[in-house]
């Protein structure tokens, strides 16, 4: 049986019997005016962060959500879009589609503004999306892509790239791991499906996105996720896993490579009113400017009176690349 079949089986189980400890997020339950998230959706929250940000949801975006789980994030996206078919949910597991459909009915009872018709549920595979090219403004996935092995991850990312409109954005939350993992962990299909042994270093994750063509990357959050300890898992050393929230924007690829924002800021503290690098970046004296890592490195070289902050892993827009 391939690891993809093992994954489908695991999520069939998780659809039929909610598993509160499967995946997990430290994000608080959303408290927004008029929004009630049904208990069953919270119990079936199989994500590891949030992919829903108001900043992505201007101008009535057409939203695609791949790997629906209990439907919580689709409800959250609908909170902003509030239109028939505004959100399309794709999942390969029939039982998960059925479970989320039931959960949307409960959500309808708890939320006067919500109608199940706001969400179109479609059976389909992340590796071959049943979605037209360039038809989506915001595509999302939470805690699914980390399960995929390298070749499948590249396929899944390329599919998201294909369906997005130019300048559309792919928003994601996934575990990452900076340590090497042994083969026993890597080849354990169940641990992989549980989002525990498929995660890769952040730079490899970003590379999969930029290799697909995404020209701008934003790291929006980086948090503690799990440890795999020798007393519970087949490992001789403690393996530390984090989760990230990340957006990949379908901007054209700059000639000098992708713009990756990790939360760095540049501040010019020289004697002039401003510093102009003649490459599109003007730094007013003693005012912070969010910059991508590429620009941070170039500015540090160009002028020794610029302070460059460390990556905060908390970038939420603005600045220059
Ligand atoms: C870890 S759960 C995450 C669920 C949801 N995103 C959340 O945050 O609660 C993974 C989801 O992806 C679905 N899934 C697994 N393999 C898939 C595939 N190849 N294509 C689409 N969905 C898939 C599972 O059925 C499940 O709903």
TrEMBL record:
Domain Methyltransferase type: 64-172
Signal peptide: none
SUPFAM superfamilies the record matches: S-adenosyl-L-methionine-dependent methyltransferases
Keyword annotations: Methyltransferase, S-adenosyl-L-methionine, Transferase
Coiled-coil positions: none
Keyword Plastid: no
CDD domains linked to this entry: AdoMet_MTases (cd02440)
Superkingdom: Bacteria
GO molecular-function terms, A-Z: methyltransferase activity
GO biological process, one term: methylation
Pfam families (UniProt xref): Methyltransf_11 (PF08241)
Protein name: Arsenosugar biosynthesis arsenite methyltransferase ArsM
Organism annotation: Sediminicola luteus
High-level lineage: Bacteria, Pseudomonadati, Bacteroidota, Flavobacteriia, Flavobacteriales
